Amino acid sequence: MPDLPMSQGVVIIGGGCVGGTLACALAQAGLQVAVVEAREPLQDWPADSVDLRVFAITRASERIFRSIGCWDAIEQGGLSPFRDMHVWDAGGTGEIHFDCAELGEPTLGYIIEQRVIQSALNARMQALPTLRRICPAELVGFETQDRGVRIELGDGGVLEANLLVGADGAASRVRGLAGIAVEAHTYRQDAIVAVVTTELPHRETAWQRFLPTGPLAFLPLRDGRSSIVWSTEKTQAAALLALDDDAFLERLSEAFAHRLGRVVAVEERGCFPLQRLHATRYVTERVALIGDAAHVIHPLAGQGVNLGLLDAATLAEVILDTHAAGRDLGLLRNLRRYERWRRGDNQRMQLAMDGFKNLFGETATPLRLLRNAGLSLVDRSGPLKQTLARHAMGLSGDLPRMAGTRF
Ligand SMILES: Cc1cc2nc3c(=O)[nH]c(=O)nc-3n(C[C@H](O)[C@H](O)[C@H](O)COP(=O)(O)OP(=O)(O)OC[C@H]3O[C@@H](n4cnc5c(N)ncnc54)[C@H](O)[C@@H]3O)c2cc1C
Fold first, then answer.
1. What is the pTM of this model?
2. What is the pLDDT averaged over residues 283-294?
């Protein structure tokens, strides 16, 4: 396998949604990029099937996908805009409602299958002449040197680059090999995911009910069905997974308070353990972490991949600015700007998710009454509600250029 030139080369381990986005952003600006990906993704699938993994994608992420030339392919692959969002408390009458019209936006965001995003990214990666995708291949080790980093792959291949990026997910090998520690916390919860059919139409609305055991979300799909994410304690999740379809549908309809009538059909069910994880550093000499390799958060607000895409857009900006100034891409002093820009934001989002989870897990009456009153108050307060909504859509804060560009 030929080596990458030491100058201007970036090697990204992990070609998922986050790594693939960074690769496209750098290669479309002419940088030499190699993406090492362990698993060959699905190329095609039955037309009436829905991926168990779907993402709520923010408007900021839409802008990022547009700026790397992927959005048209994602639209063609299929997406479902959501224009309203209802969040309410199972332990009272508190409710909050967001409507895109109130915010002067055409949508609040989109529900998109992971495989649709992945396939759009793969097509774009293949079209970029300075991007080399190496798949299937795995990182087994690396060594930082004076002028670059030497990367060893499982098949004995070697790559050399100025900068190594870990976009290799929650169990990141790059992070481990770089000796970067993590702050980890298990929620002792699992998320059950499934595609379901409801008696009543979803009305392009994302729904979330907070139960004392965890949140239950119904996300609208373009074929009229909904994708559910039901976060709950591990023993309850195991019991729910063991139920036959009829019993599961009954429990699900009850847990959702029949908000869309009865849930009448369910496809295959999947289950994901939930954890919070944060790398103590995002960068070391010639190494940077992005996406789940750097942080994993509770899925209750559907922010994980969106934060990862902001990491990718921010790191791309830092690398391109460094390159334009003729400086070494891998030097720690240049990479620190990326860490300063993103780590605090990601930490604040993690803390906010934990705050919501704990608040809604409280069953004591005074706290329950207080949070219900709080929800209703926020719902009636225009400016505070607007601020919350714009933040959830990724449209506020210190955004990288790719996420701030209006199309
Ligand atoms: C139930 C659930 C629901 C969620 N819903 C949402 C949502 O609605 N919205 C949202 O924004 N987020 C959501 N998330 C979070 C989201 O799934 C993750 O944040 C996102 O998938 C992380 O993307 P990534 O590219 O960083 O990592 P991954 O998706 O984990 O990709 C890592 C890639 O690296 C490759 N890889 C790993 N190790 C190696 C190696 N050694 N060598 C080569 N390649 C390697 C893997 O094959 C993989 O392709 C949800 C999570 C869960 C659990």
1. 0.94
2. 98
